[in-house]
Automatic annotation (TrEMBL):
Name the UniProt record assigns to this protein: Uncharacterized protein
Keywords of the record: Membrane, Transmembrane, Transmembrane helix
Spans traversing the lipid bilayer: 26-45
């Protein structure tokens, strides 16, 4: 059930992005920039600061 909700949520996000990108092409550039920034931040935190991601579920 959770997987189904996640799929529908992702579908809604994609459809919203398609609709908004028709109005303004800068939306895709801004979202791509946020993704790149988050990947670089995660890489920096894991490699440079030696931060470990610990699972919460045992």
């Amino acid at each position: 059930m959770v997987l189904l909700a996640a799929i529908f949520s992702l579908l809604a996000m994609v459809l919203a992005l398609v609709y908004v990108s028709k109005e303004s092409h800068q939306v895709i550039i801004v979202l791509a920039g946020f993704v790149v920034l988050s990947v670089l931040t995660e890489f920096f935190m894991q490699k440079v600061l030696q931060r470990e991601v610990r699972p919460r579920v045992k």
